Every structure is written in C-alpha cells, then in structure tokens.
Amino acid sequence: MLEKENISLENMNSFGVVHKTKSLLIIDKAADLINFLNSNSIDKSKIQILGEGSNTLFTKDYEGIILHSQIKGIEIKKEADDSVILKVGSGENWDEFVEFCVKSNYFGIENLSLIPGSVGAAPIQNIGAYGVEIKDFVENVTGIDLSSNELVNYTNEECEFRYRDSLFKKRLKNKLFITSVEFRLYKNSKFNLSYKDLEKFDKSKLTISKLREEIIKIRSSKLPDPSSKGNAGSFFKNPEIDKLKLEEIKSNNIDFKYFEVPGKMYKVPAAWLIEKAGWKGFSDGLVGVYDKHALVLINHSSESGGNILKLSNTIKDDVYKKFGIMLEEEVNIV
Ligand code: EPU
Question: For a substitution probing ligand 1, which of 55, 234, 319 has the most ligand atoms within 8 Å of its CB?
C-alpha cells in the first residue's frame, strides 16, 4: 500500500483538472486497507473512492482521503461446458479485461469494449453500451465495508442494478471499497446486435474479435479519446418522460427519437435535447460540448472542474426552459 499526502489529481481524472487531495491511498491488497482502517481513527465521512477517474469531476481540492485500487488478477473460479466464472481484481483496467475475454473466446461483454475505467467501477454505474449492460454478467461483488472494516459480498440481486445505477452509487456510495468482481461469461456466441449500427451483421458469420473491432470503430468515431480531449463520456443520463410530455415534444419535432421503457415511460436521448437546444459544438475556449456527440462535455484548457460544472448547470437550465425536462448528471461530481 502506498500513502501520499497533498498531491495533485491531474493524472487521475480523465477531465484532466488540476485539483489536489489531502491524502491518497493506493491499495494493492485488501488486507492492507483493512489493517489501515483498524489501526487509524479516521473520519469515514471524508473518504472518496476513485477508480481510474474516468467518470468523476473534481470541482475543488479534496479535503479527505482518496482510496484507489490497484488490486490485480483474473482468475477462473468455476468452469462448465457452456460458461465460466472469472474473479477479477477491482484495479484491473476494464478494456484490458474485455480484451482478455475476447481472446479467450468468453462471450458476453465484447459490446462493452473501450469503455474507460476500472473493473471495480464497472458495477457501480452498471456500465452499458450498444445494447449490453454489465448487470447481465455480474455474479457477485466483494468489497470492504468501510464502517465495519470487514469483507462483504453482494449477489447480483443484492446489487440493485438499474440503468446506470446500483446500490453502490446510492446507499453504499463511498461506503464500500470494491476489491473484486465475479463475472459469468459464455463459451458459445451470445452476440447482441440490437444496436442500430450492428443490425447489418449476420450472426452466423460474425466472430467475437470482429465484433470487438466494430465496437471500437463505432465508439472511436462518436466519442472523444480522453487522452487527447479531457472528458468523461456521457455527462448526463438519458431521461425518462411520460406520455404527456412525449406527445408535447413529438408534436413540435418530427425528428424526435425515443423508446418505450417499462411503466408506460419513454427514454429520450439527452444528446438530442442538448443538440436541439443549440449546445452541440459550443466552446468558450476553456470548456465546451463535443462537436460529434452532444452528450459529452469537453475540458479544453480549464484547470478547475468548476468551469465544467458551470457549463453543465447552464445546459441543464436551458434544456429545462426549452423542453421542461431536467437532465441528471451521470458523472460523479466531487
Ligand atoms: N443524438 C443526437 N445528437 C448527438 C448524438 C446523438 O441527437 O450529438 C441522438 C441520435 O438520435 C441518436 C441518439 O441520440 O440516435 C442516441 O445516441 P447514441 O447511440 O450515441 O447513444 P446515447 O444514448 O447518446 C448511450 C450511452 C453511451 C453509450 C451509447 C451507445 C448513456 C448516458 N449513454 O448514449 O454511454 O456508448 O448509448 O450504447 O446512456 C457513457 O456512459 O459514458 C457512454 C458513452
């Protein structure tokens, strides 16, 4: 375990903002954190858990302890004729894990290729893309309960997975340090080609590595690479609206796209709302909105995350004024 004091988070967040943390603990073994918690009296309300920082916006210096996992390892826990259960350390890089599965012909998560971040962060917001969500492959999640300092385990059902949401993002936010995740993957193709750009493929001729390649191509054409443009992917969630609101917007916009979700509600692309409100490609020199995808806020040259937060609030107000829909951030604001 490595302990650092008063250090910059610049290289630990994909927006590239330059805020500091009072303390940073880099953990490569669960036992080290348990020992630390048992032998130090710390203010547990001042703990922030950070993966690779690809879904977090720091808006000021952090006056507490940041916990960062470097727990590694991919281990086969169980193997059957048609599936395999892998236990993966929370500090593994997500896309390297996907690549490992694709090379091993373990099917299921190939549509989640190139999503930035760590394995430990993946269940927190139930990462999803191109018709697939991680919740359908998580067996269980293990972590250190920061109030009891003990290892605890949550079954898939106990994780309370929803669209971009879970128990870990709500009640257990910064209260559970995830150490490993177990995934069930399949040995036979389970391709999900429901996303519009993938419908053209013939399932019988497709291979898992071809699908990964295609996903990487689609993703790279729509979303900016955080290593060259500070961003955190989708900044907002896609909101759900009721039929009344749907009809109101539909009657004024022939190009309005939406899809039905359970409970007689409709999910609408936040990107469409932001683009229609005129924000796509906006820049004030410091921060802006990506010109190829309106859901992505970009840090051009701001040292403080406060400028991104300000832009996000301005966009939220404007979309609300124009459509009566309040957008909700997908990114964690600290
Ligand atoms: N659209 C616009 N303007 C734009 C971009 C998109 O109007 O600038 C409209 C189009 O009508 C398009 C629709 O929005 O058909 C949906 O766009 P897209 O397929 O890119 O998906 P999204 O709903 O904007 C979600 C996820 C992405 C994920 C894609 C693909 C959320 C918040 N975002 O975006 O996830 O990659 O679907 O499955 O659910 C992320 O979470 O960081 C992320 C990138």
Answer: 234
